[in-house]
Amino acid sequence: MPPQQFKARIEDRVIQNDKFFTISFELIEPGAMEFKAGQYVSIKVDAAGTRRSYSIASRPDINHGFELAIDVTPGGVGTTFLRDMPIGTEVEVLGPLGSFVIADDPTEKAIVLVGTGSGIAPLRSMLLDLLQVKQDTRPIILHWGIRFVESLFWENEFQDIVERFPNFKFHPVVSKAIDGWTLCRGRVTDCLSTHELPTEAGYYLCGGKPMIESVVKLLGERGIAPEHIHHEKFF
Ligand SMILES: Cc1cc2nc3c(=O)[nH]c(=O)nc-3n(C[C@H](O)[C@H](O)[C@H](O)COP(=O)(O)OP(=O)(O)OC[C@H]3O[C@@H](n4cnc5c(N)ncnc54)[C@H](O)[C@@H]3O)c2cc1C
Q1: Are the C-beta atoms of 206 and 119 separated by less than 8 Å?
Q2: Has residue 36 been placed in a domain?
Q3: Is residue 33 domain-resident?
Q4: Which residues does 17 contact at the CB level (< 8 Å), separation at least 6?
């Protein structure tokens, strides 16, 4: 669908921890947005018309609104607006935007999602869409890198999905892990290096530029074809 201007209302905000909050919007006019999992919206965040982009984290079949996951640490006009505006505030939204979507490619026989920080947002939409909506039976593996264990959120939801869908594997990767953390430590590249990386698979990377560059390099060294590496750079 081509992007359109929408009026939306802030419906709810959940402070997940010191670093992240999630925020949901209800569309007012038009009342529904057809989007694909992985796409983003551009939100007007001040009276001067400044805009910031945010990936949709929710399922595309629930199209009367959308949910975002926001990292508060940048602390600029975008995060401050989304953090402070009262519930009920009306905002101007342009969407859907972007081409970071699951390829319609039968040679992608597995899907590997790799994100850091708020880069989990479009990957969650993809994951929920693939498993809960499309009942996709391909192996789907999520590697989510984060600095501190306390910053994880949605991990219970991902764990529930692991239990319900035997084709899904979840690897949280913590770079500053506390004693007793038994799962992956270090950077996402460290985690990826210790796992078998299927060659006939689509790799979907989302986060900051340094992570994307190092994962693309690693995947290239492991023989993954460039056309199977898709990415969205947040900053
Ligand atoms: C396609 C796209 C989708 C995006 N989706 C999301 C999303 O789902 N959630 C989200 O929190 N952000 C997302 N971003 C980043 C977002 O658009 C803003 O850049 C971010 O919220 C900072 O805006 P600001 O006005 O608060 O700070 P600014 O003053 O614009 O930026 C301050 C600094 O923070 C850095 N920065 C920007 N984003 C991040 C981040 N996520 N983590 C760490 N440092 C960052 C910038 O490089 C800049 O140096 C996305 C960006 C793009 C291009």
Answers
A1: yes
A2: yes
A3: yes
A4: 150, 151, 152, 153
Which amino acid is residue 9, in one-letter code? R
Pocket residue to mutate for ligand 1, from 24, 52, 205, most atoms within 8 A of Cβ: 52
- Cα distances (angstroms) measured from residue 122 to each of 50, 115, 212: 22, 9, 15
Indicate whether 1 pLDDT > 90.
no
Domain extent for 63 = 4-97
Residue pLDDT, tens place only, 171-219: 999 999 888 899 999 999 999 999 989 999 999 999 999 999 999 999 9
Q: What is the CATH number of the domain that holds 33?
A: 2.40.30.10
The tens digit of pLDDT for each residue in 36-57 reads 999 999 999 999 999 999 999 9
Total tally of structural domains belonging to the chain:
2
DSSP 102-158: ----TT--SEEEEEEGGGHHHHHHHHHIIIIIS---S-EEEEEEES-GGG--SHHHH
Q: Is residue 144 included in any domain, yes or no?
A: yes
Does 57 share its domain with 122?
A: no
9 neighbors 96 (Cβ within 8 angstroms): no
- What is the tens place of the pLDDT at every residue in 101-147? 999 999 999 999 999 999 999 999 999 999 999 999 999 999 999 99
Which amino acids bring their CB within 6 angstroms of ligand 1? Answer: 40, 52-55, 68-71, 73-79, 98, 117-118, 121, 232, 234-235
Distance 182 CA to ligand 1 centre (A): 30
- In three-state secondary structure terms, 163 is helix
Q: Are residues 89 and 127 in the same domain?
A: no
